[in-house]
Design goal:
single chain; Four Helix Bundle (Hemerythrin (Met), subunit A); globular; DinB/YfiT-like; DUF664 domain-containing protein; MST-like
Length: 177
């Protein structure tokens, strides 16, 4: 598994700027996700280990779409062809999926591309700025701030990286870190 280069480690403990701290921790979790997944051979990346049935490769693709839904389609109000494309039929309530014939490298490249797009979006905005209307959010009242979106993404990554910890351990490829 070829892991795209991302900044490693947690942000410096002396970092006080909230914007850089949030972006730094988001990169930390992106990198941790890929590092943990890289411990698994191809067959384990495509094998479900938990009763919910998702695979590590589906998890990576899901997080690519989570970032797209919250930052590209959400915050930047970009028109995206299928914001729920990580789901079976494109409905929010469906289970994650990787389309047949999609290689691991294609999933990793799409994830890396979305992460880079997300970085550009967050770097160009202020934490107190509300999401643009016309994408995911139709009214000013429902448009969250960039700070809220980044906190939401951090909790999503933290939860899923913890779940991946369990999957990697169940597959027999180590624990923690």
């Amino acid at each position: 598994m070829s892991v795209p280069p991302l900044p490693e480690g947690e942000p410096a403990p002396t970092l006080a700027d909230p914007h850089h701290l949030l972006e730094g921790y988001l990169d930390y979790y992106r990198n941790t996700l890929l590092r943990k997944a890289s411990a698994l051979p191809e067959e384990e990346l495509r094998a479900p280990r938990l009763p919910s049935g998702w695979t590590p490769l589906e998890l990576i693709r899901h997080l690519q779409y989570v970032e797209q839904r919250w930052l590209s389609w959400g915050f930047a109000a970009e028109q995206v062809p299928d914001p729920w494309g990580d789901r079976g039929s494109g409905r929010a309530e469906d289970r994650w999926q990787v389309p047949a014939g999609t290689s691991t490298q294609q999933v990793l490249d799409a994830f890396a591309g979305q992460c880079e797009r997300s970085r550009r979006i967050t770097a160009a905005a202020q934490l107190g700025q509300r999401a643009a209307r016309g994408g995911r959010f139709g009214t000013e009242e429902e448009a969250p701030t960039l700070a809220w979106i980044l906190f939401h993404l951090l909790q999503e990554y933290a939860r899923h990286v913890g779940q991946l910890d369990v999957v990697v351990e169940l597959a027999g490829y180590g624990t923690g870190e």
